[in-house]
Amino acid sequence: MKISLMTHRGAVRQDNQDAVLVSGAIRTGDMSFPELLEAEGFPLLLAVVDGMGGYRGGALAARILAESLAGGAEEKNTFGACFDVEADGRALRGLLENAAARMRAEARDNPELAVMGATTAGVLLREKNALAFNCGDCRIYRLSGGELERLSYEHSIVEALYEKGEIDEEGMRSHPKKNIVTSAVSASMADGFDLYTKGLSRCDSDSFFLCSDGVWETFSSRHLTHCLNRPFPGAARELFDALLAEKCRDNVSFVWGPCS
Asked: Rounded mean pLDDT of 27-48?
């Protein structure tokens, strides 16, 4: 299976507070082009992590969360041998709780990091099933039969407005409160965090596209559908180049796969 992943600060931000991972492989910083990884075996964990850019320690929070997920993916006993939505969901929540505990420990030693946090979206892939999960406003799409379907449910003000029918998909990208999340894995949220999970069956031809909010706020679902239906892996490079050409004001990161 081939997986494409990339992360970059974008054209405006001074630093990159995102991270991407494929099981135990984590990438941070600015990548010059999408990397193509060969993955074998199941379960396979794909994820995008977005450090909360308006706060100190966003990059560190993203790194902590990515390391917790990657460590869990590498540990043989984290996920069971069989697909179980509830058990896999509990395991993922445990990994995120471990990350939150590490963030709190960092904040105790350095009080200016007390509001550090990160959002994430990912997919735990099995041979015929998958578990999509997210906390915050990173997104998960599935490309199946040429059609793009959003699987994630953002914990954000604009998602709540969208659910009420007060704004449409385009309105989510342009709303002045589009960057306000209502849940994140953080050092400061005393009540913990919300984790959305969705179990689904999958076909061998299905691929998943995970991205930070900097990506989905830049390109509409229609544009992404067009990009993701182009030949892989060249389409990943085309999308990367297009994101930078758009002079994105946020960090931009995605993971796309598996593709043959």
From this structure: 95
Asked whether the predicted pLDDT for residue 54 surpasses 80, the reply is no
**pLDDT band for position 191 (cuts 50, 70, 90):** confident
For each of the domains in the chain, give its residue range(s) and CATH number, in order of start: 2-259 (3.60.40.10)
User: How does pLDDT run across 116-141, given as a tens digit for each residue?
Assistant: 999 999 999 999 999 999 999 999 99
What pTM value is reported for the model? 0.96
12-31 tens-digit pLDDT: 888 999 999 999 999 999 99
| Token digits of residue 101 | 């505990």
In 3D space, the residue among 11, 46, 50, 15 whose CA is nearest the CA of residue 29 turns out to be: 15
Residues ≥6 apart with Cβ < 8 Å to 67 = 26, 99
Say how far residue 58 (Cα) sits from the centre of its chain.
Answer: 15
The pLDDT assigned to 55 comes to 65
